[in-house]
Backbone:
């Protein structure tokens, strides 16, 4: 009975390995149980049924593995047959190609169901045939394979030393996982090895890693239990104040996140259970967030209306707190900025048009325009009409320099004179302002000949219109 109990425990262990994706380890245990059952002779029906189920599991994974790897083995065999039918001219390249194919073949055995005896014999027969054109390199490659085997033995010894050193107190789960990954990468580098060494090395490599894999599994199970207990703590939170519940949950969540891994398959399921346990605390929060998202949608629709009041919308945006990082909120902010930019553009276009039509308001006492500066409107009602063409030109050139427009070549001397004055003002701390533009426009109006502008004045005013486009935001 004691033997049967041991066999049941072994089958349970094999099942856990299957569930964890450690197929090779599980199959090894099933094979060992099969041997012991045959040696035992008569066993209970319960044990026989249990063994038959696990044996079927093992065969299933073998079939899956064969289904995935046999086409790859067939590809390798086809490549060897090509080398036999048409050897490479360079014997060394031929040897390297065979070496590469042998490596691929052995790595398939390392990561999946091993090739059958017939497959191995067929592969060996073909490789021996492919070797014939490059026999001179055989001994060299044999030495490489022997060297690879020695390096692999060193890796196994290193793993065994690691186990002896830390088995009393294992390092952290992540450190052990990294170590196994590192040793496996090193192991892969040293391939191929001689056929007679391959199976023995492979078996010893798996055996050396088993204690570390078991330690990793133990730590993952401990972490699993810790995380389950934390989830139960969340389920028990029941304070009247919902904010207190949320704060308690966040504290437990931090503890959960600081707990180590519990296995790749378990992590997403546990994380989902943790958050589902806390969903009840966030019902109000989610409702408030949904209300804000609905508000954002409404505000976005309002922006598209012709009579949209952007200041009112901006005021309502300030009250949004729950979803400020949401894509919807960010999109709304962009829409508001785009709307304001468009409105500013429309205002500036209206302003430019109004200033272009200033001379149409000469001597019109009833001229009313909210866009035009009141000082300019005042001058328009009763201009001085000084008729000073030099003053007209000077005001135009200075306006062009403010707008960074290059005056005609005929005005270069005046340009240099005015530019020097402006530079001196700049060094003295005087900067260009809206008053400068306003005063230059007043100067232009006061130095016209009469309310009927002549050809030269119209030409100069056309240049001023170009200035308005450049300095729209500086117009008074």
Residues:
């Amino acid at each position: 009975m004691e033997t049967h109990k041991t066999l049941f425990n072994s089958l349970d262990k094999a099942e856990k390995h299957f569930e964890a994706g450690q197929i090779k380890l599980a199959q090894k245990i099933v094979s060992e149980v099969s041997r012991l059952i045959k040696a035992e002779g008569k066993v209970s029906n319960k044990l026989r049924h249990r063994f038959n189920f696990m044996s079927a599991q093992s065969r299933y994974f073998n079939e899956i593995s064969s289904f995935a790897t046999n086409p790859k083995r067939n590809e390798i065999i086809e490549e060897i047959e090509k080398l036999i039918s048409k050897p490479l001219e360079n014997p060394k390249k031929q040897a390297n190609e065979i070496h590469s194919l042998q490596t691929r073949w052995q790595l398939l055995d390392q990561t999946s169901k091993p090739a059958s005896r017939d497959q191995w014999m067929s592969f060996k027969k073909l490789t021996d045939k492919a070797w014939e054109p490059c026999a001179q390199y055989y001994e060299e490659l044999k030495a490489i394979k022997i060297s690879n085997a020695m390096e692999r033995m060193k890796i196994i010894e290193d793993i065994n030393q690691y186990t002896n050193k830390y088995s009393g107190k294992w390092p952290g789960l992540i450190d052990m996982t990294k170590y196994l990954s590192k040793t496996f990468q090193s192991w892969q580098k040293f391939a191929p090895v001689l056929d007679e060494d391959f199976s023995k090395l492979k078996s010893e490599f798996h055996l050396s890693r088993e204690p570390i894999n078991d330690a990793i599994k133990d730590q993952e199970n401990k972490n699993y239990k810790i995380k389950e207990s934390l989830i139960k703590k969340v389920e028990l939170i029941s304070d009247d104040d919902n904010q207190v519940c949320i704060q308690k949950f966040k504290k437990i969540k931090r503890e959960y996140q600081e707990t180590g891994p519990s296995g790749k398959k378990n992590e997403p399921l546990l994380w989902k259970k943790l958050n589902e346990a806390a969903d009840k605390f966030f019902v109000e929060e989610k409702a408030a967030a949904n209300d804000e998202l609905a508000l954002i949608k409404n505000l976005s629709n309002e922006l598209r209306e012709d009579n949209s009041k952007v200041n009112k919308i901006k005021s309502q945006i300030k009250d949004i707190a729950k979803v400020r990082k949401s894509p919807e909120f960010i999109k709304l902010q962009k829409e508001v900025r785009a709307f304001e930019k468009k409105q500013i553009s429309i205002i500036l276009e209206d302003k430019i048009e109004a200033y272009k039509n200033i001379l149409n308001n000469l001597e019109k006492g009833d001229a009313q325009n909210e866009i035009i500066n009141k000082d300019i409107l005042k001058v328009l009602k009763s201009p001085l009409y000084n008729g000073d063409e030099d003053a007209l030109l000077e005001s135009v050139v200075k306006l062009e320099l403010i707008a960074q427009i290059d005056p005609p070549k005929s005005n270069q001397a005046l340009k240099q004179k005015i530019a020097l004055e402006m530079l001196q003002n700049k060094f003295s701390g005087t900067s260009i302002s809206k008053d400068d533009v306003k005063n230059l426009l007043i100067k232009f109006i006061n130095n016209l000949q009469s309310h009927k502008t002549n050809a030269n004045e119209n030409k100069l005013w056309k240049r001023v219109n170009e200035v308005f486009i450049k300095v729209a935001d500086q117009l008074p």
